[in-house]
Write a structure and sequence with these properties.
The chain is an all-beta fold and 249 residues long. It folds into two domains: 114 residues, UDP N-Acetylglucosamine Acyltransferase, domain 1 (3 Solenoid); 99 residues, UDP N-Acetylglucosamine Acyltransferase, domain 1. It has no helices and 33 strands. The strands form four sheets. The chain has a twelve-stranded mixed sheet with strand order 3-6-9-12-15-18-21-24-27-30-32-33, with no helix packed on it. A ten-stranded parallel sheet has the order 2-5-8-11-14-17-20-23-26-29, with no helix packed on it. An eight-stranded parallel sheet has the order 1-4-7-10-13-16-19-22, with no helix packed on it. The chain is globular. The model has no long low-confidence stretch (mean pLDDT 95).
Length: 249
Amino acid sequence: MTKIIHATAMVGENTTIGENTIISQGVTIGTDCLIGHGVIIHPHVRIGKNVRIDDHTVIGKQPMRAANSILKTEDHLPPAVIGDDCTIGTSVIIYTGCQIGQKVLVADYASVRENTRVGDYTIVGRGVTVENYCTVGRYCKLETESYITAYSVLEDRVFIAPQVTTSNDNYVGRTKERFKHFKGITVKKGGRIGVGAVVLPGKVIGEDALVAGGSVVTRDVPPRKIVRGAPARVVRDVPKEQLLENQGW
């Protein structure tokens, strides 16, 4: 098998496409891109210029739903969009309906689900999962194997450490009452969550707040405060030199 490029696909100048790659109908790829081996790009995906997509990655995958899923299948999701100057690693899956901004890095084995937006200059680390209906701001860092549950909002300059876990269902899959309260987390601008922390459904991490590693967040975290423990409680203010306003960005 060699690469397959549909007759309706548009590939920009100086773009290189690897072997065993499939580029489907209506796909648009900008100039100076590097597409690896075994990549699958589904119909009508739009990829900007100077984008690198490594081997065995899938762009524009259609979502699947179990028969008893609480999420409805959508018939007409828009195509995935990858902005200019992005780097997409090996074995990444980016679903249809995703919008990836400019100069975003999505590292190896990461997954970004449908109807999710990722802002410019953000890093989605190795093995990270960002579920559907999420919004991730600009200049965020989501580190290795962190999990962002569906319907979450991360504002600009948010830092998520490795293996942070978030949840959106306080009823743990039981009773119809859960459908009324299904909600992801919110991390306000500059919020930080330390390694291995757990954030329960609907909780808000305030602007420039810090959740210490290993904590369990069971209530909202006030802005500019450090919380620690299980359950997490306020221990002190975030040092002034760590506030966003003092970083010179």
